[in-house]
Write a structure and sequence with these properties.
8 strands; 42% helix
């Protein structure tokens, strides 16, 4: 009986998805996860990229961002392998590049180049921003973007590829 009541309780709850509600925390964690194990970096990437539940939410509310979800569905793409894993591979390449230039160990997040977010959809409470992260390693200043970031379902996600900005 208790198990049955617990099951009823759980079906009425909406589980909190893993991810970041605070964009500055997401950005600050970037350099930490680059220095961490590859598995930790992969986990970070999966937290900040759209997953299957994001795509379903977007379809339900007729939201389209950079070919997601429409083009992704048309390609019969697998979200984990074709979106999240590719994002991880981009950051892993960046990590290896930093390591090859001896910049990874001293890497620290300074801040973001531009502050503020744009309200994209008031009804659904969707915000967006694309800005450079300012990183420092020794005497070098690096600029990096994690892509176009959207706050959807109360968590920040990247909808485009990360890149180094020189």
């Amino acid at each position: 009986m208790i198990g049955f009541l617990f099951l009823i309780f759980l079906t009425g709850c909406e589980f909190k998805k893993e991810g970041y509600q605070d964009l500055d925390k997401l950005f600050a964690d970037f350099s930490t996860y680059l220095k961490a194990s590859d598995d930790s970096l992969r986990s970070y990437c999966y937290k900040i990229t759209p997953d299957e539940s994001t795509l379903k939410y977007m379809e339900k509310h007729d939201i389209h961002i950079g070919g997601i979800p429409k083009k992704l569905r048309a390609m019969k793409a697998d979200v984990r392998n074709d979106l999240q894993e590719k994002y991880f591979q981009k950051l892993l390449n960046f990590k290896h590049e930093l390591k090859s230039y001896n910049q990874l160990e001293q890497l620290e997040y300074i801040g973001r180049e531009e502050t503020g977010e744009r309200l994209m959809n008031k009804e659904l409470n969707i915000y967006a921003v694309e800005t450079n992260l300012v990183l420092k390693s020794g005497n070098d200043t690096l600029f990096f973007t994690l892509g176009e970031m959207y706050k959807m379902q109360d968590r920040w996600l990247s909808f485009t590829k990360p890149r180094i900005n020189h």
